[in-house]
Amino acid sequence: MLAVDLDGTFLESADRQKDELYNFLNNNDNIILVFNTGRNTELILPVLDDLFIPTPHYIIGDVGATVITGDTQQHVQPLQQEISNRWRETLKDISDIKELTQLNRQEQPQERRMSFYVEPDNKPEAIIEKLGQRNCDVLYSNGIYLDILATDVNKGSTLRALVDHLGIDHDRVIVAGDTMNDFSMYQTGYKGVVLNNSEEPLKQAAKDLDNAYYSDAPGTDGIFEALHHFGVTEKTQKDKQPKIQYGNSDLVMVYHRLPYKEVKEDGKTVRQKHSSPNGILPTLLGFFSNAQKGSWVAWSLSDTRTPENFEEHVEVDKEKYENLQVCRIPLTQEDVRIFYEVFSKESFWLLLHSFHEKAIFNHKHWDHFLEINRIFAEKAAQEAAENATVWIHDYNLWMVPGFLRQMRPDVKIAFYHHTPFPSADIFNMIPWRRDIINSLLQCDYVGFHIPQYVDNFTNVVRSNYPTTVNEKTEASPRFKTYGCAIGVDRYVSSLTTDLNTVRMGAHPVGINCDYIEELAQSEKVKALRAKIKDEVGDSQCIISIERTDYTKGPVDKLKGLEKFLEDHPEMRGKVSLIMVCTPPAKGMKIYDEIAQDIAYNVGVINGKYGSYEWTPIHFVNRMIPFEDVIAYYAAADVGWVTPLRDGLNLVAKEYVMANQASGKSGALVLSEFAGAAVELHGAFLVNPYDKADMSDVLYRALTADEADKDSRLQRMTRIIKKHDVAAWGRDFLADVNGEKIQDEFPDSTYIRAA
Fold first, then answer.
1. Whole-prediction pTM
2. Which of 197, 414, 537, 743 is most enclosed, with most CB atoms within 10 A?
């Protein structure tokens, strides 16, 4: 049996390579592990949920006052009942000591004990002397912690009772601690290790004990050293430590998408450029244009996970990216279907966007999710050079940081969350929430779109872990949007838990402004724009382009339009909505219902208000080329972007840039629940959950004067150009490396009009 204190002992490691001791314990079923801690049960639970810390067989908590099983947290009887009986007698005996009411009680819940903070200046000797005359035991440790327990109840006595209860030979028990409240464990006569980082009073108290070994190393290293000293291990930690195999890449991108598209032609895999104008992929590729040694880890569809003659490593473009290779992970169509199309979308995507009532949690799919994430982590570990930076992207790779940290403790792990991050009460509905948070806490840096998501992440961590906030950061001026539903002016930028110290930041993704300007000014787009204007005639044109997705709020938008036409009959025949809903990928059954609802409501509104001369809604239910998208943006008088929840929403930025490049002053109506609303000061913000507000704000945008619209558009354009997609990537990595870039935008604080 190995009985260990937690704080300063089992959770303490000088170099974060705690996994050597943990792996040894996980691989030795004959060792009974006991947590013997001052923490109460509530504060022990986060440790139990950690994927990488061995699960104890038993837990002694509350400085010996609680004893439970490690797997079910059930009390061990009759031991617990005996302790409870003693505590009742103690409470009766000390209830008249008035000085106790004047002490500063510790915040954590306490069972069968009383715990206080007593500074040396407050003369703890006096209260200790008074308590010594009563039916209780008193412990004073670290020069501040005062614990009152029942007589003969402490870490040592409860451990001894548990050992006898289990019938374990006393000579086969080893204890480890670091403060005076651990001393009773050594007094049992069991073999023990006094760690190098122990407080001096414990070192002095144990020096005359024959059973105490003083380690040279602190924390987990010291425990492992003691196991070798006592003959439990055959090798020292240094000898046992596996040799890390380093790769050659100084920067490793871990992304579910390849930086190119793979298609089958005549039975062969052919690479093509992505048809989507996703500015993120070329931006990420740009980090390798300076001949930096790098690797891009992504999946590649295959008939089997172990295909013959499979090219694991391929070059992207030798001329542009001299030292970049893609590390392809062969996944089957079924792998991708379960891991990405079904589980990630049905469980996480909807909940991240606060549609928790539609989320489906499948535990078998979670196991598959873990399996795929481990494969990604193994490949990232294989590719990374010593002390490399590994940049992991998005929620479908949530568990990669945790696995990777075990494999490669030397690397710097950065994670970027491309979706919203919900509030704690929503996120904590995920059955595996602690597993996910534990993994993210292995990162050195975690980035989100906006400060609100950073705050939400912080609150999730605090709801699952004892957390120390190290630093709060004033949001940069462009994020100060008072009156916006998801705006905050300060956020936590560094926190510490038992696992790690993590830094966080806000980095909204930008767009490729030059590319959009080039398209908008092309003859092809100009011609299509003119054609669109001809089709809508004299009507003002409203454009809405989005995926068929609950999160985009398409039905709520249609209800808002219906309310608008009802409230403003004079606008009938004078406005037309072009609504483009890109269909979901094949097999995404969760969107069937919303697709039907969209079609139904379009029909209702067109049937109710339309005529031979005028159709309120022009509905397009297919993918359209990006050139056509830019033409629609440029032709529209109003861009109507009203998701119920969106991590950012690049459509809003694209609409602004297309109008700017076309010399127009289109108005942007933007949901205040889209991340972009925090950044785009000048948009007409709207509450998409309120049909009346949808109607009113749309009317304001359609009837705004040109000077107002132009002023708003210019303001948004400055923000978008300054913080384009290239700046996003550059600023993110700068923050990862601690090279903070000053974000100045003096005129950008925005207060939403009533």
1. 0.84
2. 414
